[in-house]
């Protein structure tokens, strides 16, 4: 697996009663020293995630040092209080489709990504704060991904 294929593949956040539960999935081989020695003859070829930091804005909500003993493509789960952070409103797929359809009818063509994003931002300006995950592996590569903190609409 090439180093470029290593990444944060998904972040899911569920918020209930002022507490956010985040699950972070990684695409990473998590090669141990023994596996590296068996494969290449050199234990220094080991590569695994060594540190994960989760931030909302500048506030660190989770800080975790890890080791070689996690499985390939690990999933990390952690909780943090989110009652002081701003929550946005999650749009359903139907709402997104309706906005894009209206914009397409108005423009007479398919809207570009930027036109679509600007329309979403103008109709829903109250965005939530973003949870950003920053991870580093033994080889010094950094992986970063963000997701907006959103509250699901009650139907």
Characteristic key phrases:
39% strand; alpha+beta; 2 domains; 3 helices; 9 strands; Immunoglobulin-like; 155 residues; three-stranded antiparallel sheet; four-stranded antiparallel sheet
Outline the secondary-structure elements:
Layout: E1 7-16, E2 19-27, H1 33-40, E3 49-56, E4 59-65, E5 75-81, E6 88-89, H2 93-107, H3 113-123, E7 130-137, E8 142-148, E9 150-151
Parallel strand pairs: 6-9
Antiparallel strand pairs: 1-2, 2-5, 3-4, 3-7, 7-8
Compute the number of helices: 3
- What is the name of the CATH superfamily of the largest domain? Immunoglobulins
Task: Give the SSE order as H and E letters.
Answer: EEHEEEEHHEEE
- Supply the number of structural domains: 2
Q: What fold name stands as the CATH topology of the largest domain?
A: Immunoglobulin-like
- Give the strand tally: 9
Largest sheet: 4 strands, antiparallel
Radius of gyration computed on alpha carbons: 20 Å
Beginning-to-end CA distance, first to last residue:
44 Å
Sheet-strand content, in percent, reads: 35-45%
Low-confidence runs (pLDDT<50, min 5 residues)?
none
Instruction: Report the top-level CATH class of the largest domain.
Output: Mainly Beta
Strand order within the widest beta sheet: 4-3-7-8
Structural class: alpha+beta
Helix content: 10-25%
The shape is: elongated
> If you average the pLDDT, what whole number results?
88
CATH architecture assignment of the largest domain: Sandwich
């Amino acid at each position: 697996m090439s180093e470029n294929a290593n990444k944060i593949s998904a972040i899911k956040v569920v918020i209930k009663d002022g507490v956010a539960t985040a699950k972070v999935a990684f695409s990473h081989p998590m090669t141990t020293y023994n596996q590296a020695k068996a494969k290449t003859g050199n234990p220094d070829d080991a590569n695994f995630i060594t540190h994960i930091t989760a931030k909302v804005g500048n506030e660190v909500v989770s800080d975790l040092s890890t080791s070689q003993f996690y499985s390939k493509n690990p999933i990390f789960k952690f909780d943090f209080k989110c009652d002081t952070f701003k929550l946005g409103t999650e749009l359903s797929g139907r709402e997104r489709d309706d906005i894009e359809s209206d914009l397409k009818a108005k423009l007479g063509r398919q809207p570009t990504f930027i036109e679509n994003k600007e329309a979403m931002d103008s109709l829903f300006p109250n965005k939530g704060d973003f949870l950003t995950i920053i991870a580093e592996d033994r080889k010094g590569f950094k992986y970063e991904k963000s997701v907006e903190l959103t509250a699901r609409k009650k139907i």
